[in-house]
Amino acid sequence: MKKIYSITLLLLFLCLFFLSCEREDDDKNPPEITILGANPYTHTLGQPYDDPGATASDEEDGDISDKINIEIDVDINTQGYDYHVYYSVEDDAGNETSAVRDVYVLSF
């Protein structure tokens, strides 16, 4: 009976040890953002801007595209090369990443 008790304790200890090694807090890898479409993106002056978007994935969390925050800084009525679309995303462990699309508003 003492032997079974010792083996049970050993197995319990090993299970707890291995579970603690798999903690989510150990996730230090940031997610990746993939910008869809052209970058830089050429846009026609005066036309509505429809961004092609981006996808995001994380080693631990998988597809997290629905968590992407998008900030569009494009003036469709002023020709220029200084416009950008900013994408940022955070995984469940709090790791963040960002990407930028350059947008050229041109008259054709």
Core attributes:
19% helix; 108 residues; alpha+beta; Immunoglobulin-like; three-stranded antiparallel sheet
Give an overview in words.
This protein has a single domain, classed as Immunoglobulin-like (Sandwich). The longest helix is centred in the first third of the chain and has 20 residues, at 2-21. The N and C termini lie far apart (87 Å). It has one helix and seven strands; from the N terminus they run αβββββββ. With 108 residues, the protein is α+β, with helices and mostly antiparallel strands. It is rod-shaped and about 85 Å long. The strands form two sheets. The protein has a four-stranded mixed sheet with strand order 2-7-6-5, with no helix packed on it.
